[in-house]
Design goal:
Elements (H helix, E strand, L loop, with lengths): L3 H22 L5 H21 L2 H4 L2 H8 L1 H6 L4 H9 L3 H11 L5 H20 L2 H29 L6 H54 L7
Amino acid sequence: MTDIPTILLTTTDTGSLAAALDFLQKGGIFMIPLAITSVVGTMAILYKALSLSGSRVIPGALARDVSQFQQRIVADKVEPVIAEFEKGKSTLARLAAIVLKHRGKPRSEITHAVESAAREETVYLHAGIAVIDIIITIAPLLGLLGTASGLVTIFQGLGDNADHVAIARGISEALTTTIVGLAIAVPCVVAHGYFTRRIEMLTARLESLLSDLTSACEKPNTHA
């Protein structure tokens, strides 16, 4: 036998779902592109959250190995670290492999090679940011289009024989699309700011680690 709290909870969930569907239906045809925009924005945010994770850019263990690379050379324990670099499973590993490839050369040559590779890696770090930026622009505009469409419906319903149902439908469509458009754009704005800041922090950390690695791998200055 189903108890009363369960019945109330089920009824509430069903009522909330019905109210949400009714709210979305009031938005009219503009809810379709807004729904697509929402899905694309969500996928872009999830993609960036995964692609900017520590394991894909700067793994903690590998960062410690890079910072202690000189000590590992002295202790003759550098081979396992080099093997990790060559696997290229992270941004740091791929750039560190470039440094090792030019090991023993002057610092300027190593730096130039790393900067060339870093430009490509930077493109990968920013992949998906442009999509979020587009969603931030498009979602409110689609909401405004829905608003304009709703206002047209409202004005058409005005007159001596005003169709109050048509007027109410136009108001609902106008307000619904505006709300949904802004609701899509706001999380994307927050995500865009967060990801941009994280890329800046990761880039600065990469520069610091690669500078230390370059110092350990550069050709000794015999004129000193």
